[in-house]
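Quick one, tokens below. Sequence please?
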């Protein structure tokens, strides 16, 4: 466990517990201000995209087209990365000399800086989170006088809500069922992409396809998902659990079930 005594200069990768202290302050006036926002790869979570596209008043489709790149991981799962600007510094499209223009809705990775998660299957199973301070030679913020505990920093940066929203998504992507296979079917990849990242298109899918004819969704929930992205996101994850993990988290309507049995010739 890391010492409670803040250290100046190079920080190394000492693992921090909730009450451990580290030194950091980021502000205008430091010669490195916004330098950490250049020439980096930032993978976006589904909840990141909800916050960012709403802050910019864009549909999820427009946001994804303008600001992201889609990659296919070794598992076959689609992942989304922020598209940096095509300048020499590969700058973040949301950062200028005054800082981040979507700062209240910045991605999880940006909120966490200068920390990085240090977790294993054992710590995840125990529900414990540990972090370390990234060793960034150019960062003058690591030499500032301000000290803060890990727990204070996590709360201050709004990390708990992001962790709460990403937990069910992480359970799907890290499931043993998916770990035992590689998804190569492009239609399935597109389904996952839509449900996780292109929520406005998923909303159209739910409301305009036969989705509501096949699955039991309470009328009040249908009304909520018409405008509430967080509720829609939860429904999307249930749909993925049902389709990818064969978990009975969505109830098939009896008429749809009977029709399916008849189509398959099942008595």
């Amino acid at each position: 466990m890391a010492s409670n005594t803040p250290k100046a200069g190079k920080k190394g990768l000492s693992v921090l517990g909730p009450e451990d202290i580290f030194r950091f302050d980021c502000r205008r006036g430091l010669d490195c201000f916004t330098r950490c926002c250049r020439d980096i790869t930032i993978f976006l979570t589904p909840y990141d995209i909800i916050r960012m596209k709403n802050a910019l008043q864009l549909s999820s489709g427009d946001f994804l087209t303008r600001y992201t790149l889609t990659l296919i991981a070794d598992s076959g799962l689609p992942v989304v990365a922020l598209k940096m600007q095509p300048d020499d510094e590969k700058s973040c499209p949301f950062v200028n000399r005054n800082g981040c223009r979507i700062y209240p809705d910045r991605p999880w990775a940006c909120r966490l800086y200068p920390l990085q998660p240090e977790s294993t299957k054992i710590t995840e199973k125990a529900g414990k989170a540990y972090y370390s301070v990234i060793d960034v030679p150019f960062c003058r913020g690591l030499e500032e006088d301000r000290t803060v505990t890990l727990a204070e920093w996590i709360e201050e940066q709004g990390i708990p809500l992001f962790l709460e929203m990403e937990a069910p998504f992480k359970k799907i992507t890290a499931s043993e069922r998916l770990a035992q296979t590689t998804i190569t079917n492009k239609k399935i990849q597109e389904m996952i992409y839509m449900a996780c990242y292109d929520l406005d298109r998923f909303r159209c899918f739910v409301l305009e396809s036969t989705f509501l004819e096949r699955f039991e969704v309470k009328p009040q929930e249908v009304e909520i998902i018409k405008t509430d992205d967080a509720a829609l996101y939860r429904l999307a994850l249930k749909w993925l659990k049902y389709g990818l993990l064969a978990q009975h988290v969505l109830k098939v309507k009896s008429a749809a079930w009977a029709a399916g049995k008849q189509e398959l010739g099942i008595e």
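The chain has two domains: 15-166, 198-264. The chain has 13 helices and ten strands.
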